[in-house]
Design goal:
292 residues; two-stranded antiparallel sheet; repeat; oxidoreductase activity; 2 strands; 3% strand
Length: 292
């Protein structure tokens, strides 16, 4: 590489070189294109004008405000506050309206659906799934089988107060642990489980007296689930002839439930979510297709 003092005129182009050479390649000292220079000067002018007009330079305890005093942060805060004020106004309208009025008012319904969907994703989806199809121990909110009723008023009450949540108005329907607490012996558990399996369309356990299981059912279970096993929503007793079981539809799952009685808990959302959001959740869940 040659130093910058070895300048010469290039024989082919007639342009002076800079004196720099790399592996036999010599750098020509061509001037920058005029369009590029003009563009560069324009950007310099623009940058200087921007520096004066808009907020630009950080300082020790702030920044230069610019002659226009523009602040995107202030604009964003103002837009947020305006949106919150509008939401509060519509939210108050939701609180004042009945659930039927919300469903019949297109503006309120649109707001409730959007708010309910967002609240469902944040608070309900971890248990019921993002598609509300549930899982073992967590009800499917898209079918038409509801333990406590699927009307919009039923949903609103369940969401507000929860199930076995500890709230004074929570829905409570505890199933006894027949096997664990010694209410039924193992033979009776096997018998009643096999009888319930026949209600559910499952093959009963071979060699088990199903007729005896029907008697055990009538003496211990029919008071809540009904003589036909169709359940009673006012007691939170599931329909045992339904296509889906909350804790699994198999003979072993039925035995486990009769023995240990897994009584699931749903939290109460009153006090955790504002009343408008609770109503919005009821409207949204009811719209999923499984509401009654």
């Amino acid at each position: 590489m040659a130093d910058g003092h070895n300048k010469e005129i290039d024989a082919l182009s007639g342009v002076e070189t800079t004196g720099h050479e790399w592996d036999g390649l010599k750098e020509l000292n061509n001037p920058l294109p005029r369009w590029w220079l003009y563009l560069f000067y324009a950007t310099c002018v623009w940058a200087f004008a921007y520096w004066i007009i808009y907020p630009a330079w950080p300082l020790v305890s702030g920044y230069t405000r610019g002659v226009l005093g523009i602040s995107q942060r202030a604009d964003a805060i103002a837009a947020y506050e305006a949106g919150m004020a509008e939401r509060a106004e519509t939210g108050q309208a939701l609180i004042n309206a009945s659930l039927d009025e919300i469903q019949s008012n297109p503006q309120l319904l649109e707001f409730a659906m959007a708010s309910g969907q967002a609240a469902f994703g944040d608070n309900c989806a971890p248990c019921h799934g993002s598609g509300a199809t549930g899982a073992v121990g967590y009800p499917n909110l898209q079918d038409d089988k509801w333990i406590w009723g699927g009307s919009i008023d039923d949903l609103h009450q369940t969401i507000r107060f929860g199930i076995r949540s500890g709230h004074d108005e929570a829905r409570i329907g505890d199933m006894p642990a027949f096997g664990r607490d010694g209410i039924l012996d193992k033979q009776q558990v096997d018998q009643v489980a096999s009888y319930v399996a026949t209600l559910a369309g499952i093959e009963p356990e071979a060699g088990v007296d199903v007729a005896a299981g029907e008697t055990v059912f009538a003496e211990n279970c029919a008071a809540c689930h009904g003589d036909d096993g169709k359940g009673l929503q006012e007691l939170g007793a599931p329909d045992l002839t339904a296509p889906n079981y909350l804790y699994g539809k198999s003979l072993e799952a039925i035995k486990a439930q009769v023995t240990n009685a897994r009584n699931g808990v749903m939290p109460n959302w009153e006090g955790r979510l504002d009343p408008a959001t609770v109503k919005s959740l009821a409207v949204y869940v009811h719209s999923l297709g499984g509401g009654q």
